[in-house]
Each structure stands twice: as C-alpha cells, then as structure tokens.
Specification:
The complex is a heterodimer of chains A (about 280) and B (about 230). With about 280 residues, chain A is an alpha/beta fold. Chain A contains 9 helices and 12 strands. An 8-stranded parallel β-sheet of chain A has the order 1-12-11-8-7-6-5-2. Chain A has a 4-stranded antiparallel β-sheet with strand order 3-4-10-9, with no helix packed on it. Chain B is built from 7 helices and 14 strands. Chain B folds into 2 domains: about 80 residues, Translation factors (Elongation Factor Tu (Ef-tu), domain 3, Beta Barrel), CATH 2.40.30; about 120 residues, Nucleotide-binding domain of ferredoxin-NADP reductase (FNR) module (Rossmann fold), CATH 3.40.50.80. The chains are: A alpha/beta (about 280), B alpha/beta (about 230). At the A-B interface, strand 3, strand 4, helix 8 and helix 9 of A face strand 13 of B.
C-alpha cells in the first residue's frame, strides 16, 4: 500500500521534506488558465472536519509546465499531476502535454468550482485518446449512483479511481453568515471516512480497478480500513495540516495495525470486509 | 525553521490570566524559540486543527504564548492547566528583521503578543505604544513595562511619534493605518491557518497585489507589500 497526498493538501516545493516521505506526490489541480482562487476566508473548522473553498488556485497549465514541474522533478519522487478543466477538451489538452509521470489524476469533482459540462466518462475518454499515462479518475461520493459512474469511467479507459473528493458543505459563523467567503466549501477530515469507505467498497466491487482511498485517513488503522474496503493505496489530506510527519507515522502504524488484525500485508485485509451493497465478502 | 516533522509534545507549566487574555507557558523541550514574529502551531484540545500563535516570551526552558479566547479552539487552549500536554510545531514563517536603528513597537489588542519577546531580542528598552479597546484589555500592557497606552477611542496611530523604525502587530485596520503613516514599517499580519507551512492554501492575504499564503510570505510583511493602493485620479 502506497501513501500519497490528496491533491491540494501539500505544496511539495514549499515543504519538500514532507513530500519526500510520500510514495508519490500528487500536485494541486492544474487548469488551462491561471486561477488566483477564492477570496479569504477560505477555511473553517467544523465538527470532525473542515471546510475549504480555495477555488483551484493554480498557476495555469503553461506556467505549471515551465516553472513548477521541473522543480517537482528535482525532488526525485514519483509524480502524479492532478488535471482540471471546464470541458473535456481542457482536460485532454493538458493530458497531451504531460509526459514522464507515474500517473495523471483527473479531478472530476472539485466542489468549489462549477462542474464541467461534460460527463466524467466523456472527459476520461478524451484524455484516454490524448495520453498513454495511467489515468486515475477522482470522483465525488455525492453522486447518487457512484458505482454506475465508476463503471462508465472504467469503460472509457480509466486505469484507476481516486476516492473521494471533499463534499460540498456549508458552515456558518457566529453571525449566521457563511464561514468561508465563497459561501460553500468542500468538507474534509474524519467526518468523510465512513462515506469514503462506502464509496471505495462499491466502486471496487463495480469495477475491480485499483483505487487510491482518501477521506479522513488519520492513522494506520484508518489506512487498513481502506485496504479492507478495496483500496490499493491511500492518500493523506487534512491530517497533513496538523501533522506534517503523518506519512511516516501512518506507515509505521499501518504495520502495527496489520499485526493487530492478523494480516501479513494491507492487501490481505480486503477479504475480510463485506460489500455494503450485497453483504458478501469483497472481492466476491 | 525546524525540519518539518510531526509536532512535538510539551507539558504546560503554567497558565496566567492577564485581563481577558491567558498567558500559556510550556516546557520548551527541543523547540527553537525562533525570531520574534515567527509563529507556532499549538494543538487546540478537542479540535481538529491547531491554531497559530506568535511567541510572546521565552523564559529559560520555556515558551509562553498570549491567547485571546475568541472561539472554541482558543478557549480550549486557555483552559489548559499545568501538567497538561499539547503538541507544538514551529517556529514557522518569517519574523521581524531586528537590524534597525530606532525601534518603535506598536501593538493593538492581542497584537501585543509578539512584542515582549521582540523587545527582549532588540534589547535597550525600545519605545512602545499600545492601544486597547478597554481598561480590562489594557491589563496586558503589564507585559511591556514603560509602554505608552491608549484606550479606544484614542488610536495608536494618533500618538505614534515620527522618525522611528516601526514594528507593528494588531488588527488589520490598524496595520493599514500604520502602513500609510510609515511605509517602512514591519507589520505582523494575521489570517486563519490550518497548517502553517504552505500546505492548505487557506491563509491567503493580498500581498504585492495578489493573493499569497501568509504563512510562507509572512506573517511579518514590509508595509510596502500590503499598503492599500492609493487611487490616482486622472
């Protein structure tokens, strides 16, 4: 089980020592044009989680490729680039310009910008034609039938899934005004974990694709629960904010959690969990 | 700055009320007190995220932080008692440059927090002007003996003498006013932060005309970087 960061939850150029403790670094989402992001306040703590409304702040595709990517390559760790956009062509054009990466993650589910008009499957299909790099589709658990979306992106050529993104949410301040200036934000942190475990489990059963599980992973035990639900790898998000040492800590805790659970390695835990949809062991 | 690893755990050695504020003292352990104006992320017991505080005092073997209980996280920190333990990460960010000729320290409200350690590091009893909203809040001025103190509605910018190298910390309107009066001032800014090391992108402030992360650029900024642009009428 590899330990990655969730896109947008770590700046490897600002904190290279943290990034080097990961098995791969996932960039903040890159969009075709530069985005300054939303006005502050952008974050708010809520019970068991936090809201963020960063708004996909990023330097845009051209500056990312020219200025940021070379610096990231110097870190000497496997790289994933998170790609965003507002139509299938946006995603595909960026994919066509990417080379020499471990994977591309397609951000099909940012809660802080309007959703792309094209369906997740259409975007994956366009990107599949534009690159031979492994494509991971990052989906939202807010979709009423996530398994169907997962099957559609699998059929369109996705090599894996990243599950889950933050969920759109609202927090109010003491004056009953939205706590983040954007109004709504993306909910992250421990509150997401049960939702993410469900999403991983049903998508694993529906597609059999490798899955990067994320959403409230704070400990090695959390990581093992994602493995039990079918995640091959996990990503750390909000936990990095309070603990930049989390990658090494979670890795050490995962070993202990495996011992406690009586499994040799995290992958062995998958046969222990039951599918929430069918009640049978996953995989079948 | 220390290498970014997991935060270290520190025992609370004391917690003292100063007006509405609490001065929290911790065992220093291996932490470097850093440069005045740098900050530390303190665990807020029972909350998900830590909270940023600049160092107020650095007694031998200890670190002390002045905390204003404005919300559930800071309230939880103010309720800590001697013997409790919390995790601490820091020092983080960029502090004040100390190589000035005639220092003047200007603080507003909880903005007094970094000034006692700053005065100690500058040495030579620098001039200090402090502003508070009421007599109760002004009790914190005891942390800087000899300071000139004004109470609302008098503003610090009304009594600031000219010809000094200004170090300021306080509410945003005060910092903007200081920046207009003293273009060379060093200002300690504030913003909500989840991480303190550039990971969350939450603490952006308009710096050099664009939204930039305060934890990486500051929290101490040259006034010229944050001055409200003066509108030029053609």
């Amino acid at each position: 089980m590899r330990i990655l960061n969730a896109s947008g939850c770590l700046d490897a150029l600002a904190a290279p020592e943290v990034a080097r403790r990961l098995d791969a670094f996932v960039t903040k989402t890159v969009t075709p044009l530069p985005r300054e992001g939303n006005a502050p306040p952008r974050i708010a703590e809520v019970a068991h989680g936090m809201l963020n409304a960063i708004g996909l702040a990023n330097p845009g595709r051209d500056r990312f490729l020219a200025d940021h990517l070379p610096g990231l390559r110097e870190l000497g760790i496997p790289l994933w680039v998170s790609v965003g956009g507002f139509c299938a062509e946006d995603y595909a054009e960026t994919c066509s310009q990417l080379t020499d990466l471990e994977a591309v993650e397609l951000n099909l589910s940012c809660p802080n910008v309007d959703e792309a008009a094209d369906s997740a499957a259409e975007i994956v299909l366009s990107c599949r034609r534009a690159t031979e790099l492994p494509l991971y589709a990052k989906l939202s658990a807010a979709h009423p039938n996530l398994a169907v979306v997962a099957q559609a992106v699998a059929a369109a050529g996705a090599d894996g899934l990243s599950l889950i993104n933050t969920l759109r949410a609202v927090a109010l301040d003491q004056h009953l005004r939205p706590a983040v200036a954007h109004g709504s934000g993306g909910l992250s942190g421990p509150a997401l974990k049960p939702i993410a475990l469900h999403a991983v489990s049903v998508c694993r059963e529906a597609t059999g694709l490798p899955i990067v599980g994320m959403g409230g992973v704070e400990t090695g035990r959390d990581a093992l629960e994602f493995a039990a639900c079918g995640a091959r790898d996990i990503a750390l998000g909000t936990v990095l904010f309070k603990d930049p040492g989390a990658p090494a800590r979670v890795r050490a805790e995962l070993e202990a959690a495996c011992d406690d659970a009586g499994v040799v390695k995290p992958e062995d835990a998958e046969s222990l969990a039951k599918s929430p949809e069918t009640g049978r062991k996953v995989p079948a | 700055m220390q290498s970014l690893a997991s935060p270290s755990t520190h025992r609370v050695t004391g917690s003292e009320r100063i007006g509405p504020y609490t001065l929290l003292q911790l065992e220093r352990g291996d932490l470097d007190p850093g440069v005045p104006g740098q900050f530390f992320m303190l665990e807020a017991p029972g909350r998900l995220l830590p909270r940023p505080f600049s160092l107020c005092l650095a007694p031998p073997g200890e670190l002390a932080f002045l905390v204003d209980p404005v919300g559930p996280g800071t309230q939880a920190i103010c309720e800590l008692q001697a013997g409790d333990r919390i995790s601490v990460l820091g020092p983080l960010g960029h502090g004040y440059r100390l190589d000035v000729g005639r220092p003047l320290l200007v603080g507003g409200g909880i903005g007094i927090a970094p000034l006692p350690y700053l005065a100690e590091q500058l040495g030579g009893s620098p001039a200090v002007v402090l502003g508070f909203r009421s007599e109760e809040y002004a009790e914190a001025a005891a942390l800087l003996p000899g300071a000139e103190v004004v109470i609302d509605p008098v503003l610090v910018t009304e009594v600031m003498p000219g010809g000094y190298d200004v170090f300021a910390c306080g509410p945003e309107p005060m910092l903007h006013a200081v920046a207009e009066l003293c273009p060379g001032a060093q200002l300690a800014w504030e913003a909500p932060m989840a991480c303190g090391y550039g990971a969350c992108y939450g603490c952006v402030v308009e710096i050099d005309g664009a939204l930039k992360r305060l934890c990486l650029e500051g929290p101490v900024l040259d006034a010229a970087r944050v001055r409200t642009p003066v509108e030029v009428v053609a």
